[in-house]
Design a protein that fits this description.
mainly alpha
């Protein structure tokens, strides 16, 4: 438990101080955000705001994790290292996207095919390693399960490896892009991520306390390395919290694709490694709704040859176009995230209570 507190606290401090340094460095180099021309006109004032702040979130999280392990004298586990690989790997794809935007002074970075190839490569390597027998523990548990899971594995059907890798790819690329879509207003995605990673920290702590590795029972959790996953989750939560100080309206820095892709992938990775893939749809409900709004808008536009459901997608821009202030949209979407997190944690706990009844 000390490692969780160290990781969360240190990541917050590293991020809080490091983001200020990043703002100064990025501003001097002219690494500013490009704004899409078809977006709300109020966003044009943000042009030139430093971006790629996700570097600080990633760096703070990783540094805090390893310092926490050093201070507590614990060795990193396979599950935590896999999650960090996914986190850093997807952040690298996002960094390339951000850097191209800055270098070419345009609102679009990597070509969509190149970006998808990078995301696919990282996701599949993660999936293959997480399912590899080489990473089995003394109980024969691999970091990821061969079953689809809600709160626990659906044991009735062992999913073939190919189908499971496709599912892992869909979840990781889907949530990395979902957080990317949500990151359109000052502090929106950052604040939402604080709550969702905080929820997964609690889930991991509970799974560790009720782990089948400690005591076999009808309600225990067959999850590999839950306590170390809590350390990583707490570190990312703390890093997002520190970054939010500078990212809240009016934002002095944006996380860019470097941050949004890595955070979304880390959420998907946590869901896979904790056997709660479908629960993430509830806990991360805001990201799901934002993505669905884009899919609905695009699909309806094509089917009706030019008509729209929303004034603009993703959904947060629709409310902006209705005249809501940015801060109002962000706070209300944070409230929605809080409700989704509360619902997800409530379902998680209720399932455990029902299991011991």
């Amino acid at each position: 438990m000390k490692a969780i507190l160290f990781a969360g606290g240190l990541a917050l401090i590293f991020s809080l101080l490091g983001t200020k340094v990043a703002i100064n460095v990025l501003s001097r180099r002219g690494y500013g955000q490009e704004i899409r021309d078809d977006g709300p006109t109020t966003h044009h004032t943000k042009r030139g705001t430093p971006t790629m702040g996700g570097i600080v979130i990633i760096g703070s999280s990783v540094a805090a994790y390893f310092v926490a392990k050093l201070l507590t004298g614990q060795l990193p586990t396979a599950s935590a290292l896999l999650l960090l690989f996914l986190f850093i790997g997807m952040g690298t794809v996002g960094f390339l996207d951000d850097f191209i935007k800055i270098a070419k002074q345009r609102s679009l970075g990597l070509r969509s095919k190149a970006k998808m190839i990078g995301q696919t490569l990282i996701a599949l390597v993660f999936g293959l390693l997480a399912l590899s027998p080489m990473l089995e523990d003394e109980r024969g548990e691999t970091p990821a399960s061969r079953h689809i899971s809600f709160i626990r594995d659906f044991d009735s059907w062992v999913v073939p490896t190919v189908l499971l890798l496709i599912f892992v790819w869909l979840l990781i690329t889907g949530f990395s892009n979902a957080v990317n879509l949500t990151d359109g207003l000052d502090g929106l995605a950052t604040g939402a991520c604080v709550m969702v990673f905080g929820a997964y920290t609690l889930v991991n702590i509970w799974q560790n306390n009720q782990s089948c590795a400690i005591q076999q029972s009808a309600s225990c959790y067959e999850v590999r390395d839950p306590l170390d996953l809590a350390v990583v989750s707490a570190a990312i939560m703390g890093a997002c919290f520190g970054f939010l100080w500078w990212n809240a309206s009016p934002a002095q820095i944006f996380m860019g694709d470097t941050g949004s892709l890595s955070l979304g992938a880390a959420l998907a990775g946590l869901a896979i490694l904790t056997r709660t893939e479908l629960l993430l749809v509830i806990i991360g409900g805001l990201f799901v709704v934002e993505t669905l709004s884009v899919m609905m808008q695009v699909g309806f536009f094509k089917l009706t040859k030019g008509r729209r459901i929303f004034r603009m997608a993703p959904l947060h821009h629709h409310f902006e176009m209705l005249g809501w202030e940015q801060v109002t949209v962000v706070i209300r979407f944070w409230i929605i995230t809080g409700l989704a997190v509360a619902a997800g944690l409530g379902i998680f706990y209720a399932e455990w209570v029902a299991g011991i009844g």
